[in-house]
Design a protein that fits this description.
Layout: H1 36-51, H2 57-64, H3 79-89
């Protein structure tokens, strides 16, 4: 056995992780004045995801050139504020249980 370590012929190129879809969908946009409890529930779940390390979709959309009515920098840096703006703009997709009075018919 030799102590020599053989290097591969070609270096491994680092692979970028796939980027999430950052397009906003108006079907999923929630107005906080119309559906307050749904807005709060969805935003709270999203804030939890952001605190655990999820990517900020407002920043990803701004980097992709799809800026919305409010620049992402003006939202703030707290997870709750970012989550509320993401939900308000329709970046977050959610499902409601069958039979829910809030169920919206979507064309998938």
């Amino acid at each position: 056995m030799t102590d020599e370590i053989l290097a591969p012929d070609s270096p491994l190129a680092p692979q970028d992780p796939p980027k999430p879809d950052v397009a906003a969908d108006e079907q999923y946009a929630i107005d906080s004045n119309e559906r307050r409890f749904l807005f709060v529930d969805v935003a709270a779940q999203r804030a939890k995801q952001l605190r655990k390390g999820a990517l900020n979709r407002l920043e990803l959309a701004a980097a992709a050139g799809a800026s919305g009515p409010v620049p992402a920098r003006e939202v703030g840096w707290k997870a709750e504020r970012i989550a509320m703006e993401e939900v308000r703009r329709g970046f977050i997709r959610y499902d409601l249980p069958e039979g829910s009075p809030l169920k919206v018919k979507r064309e998938d």
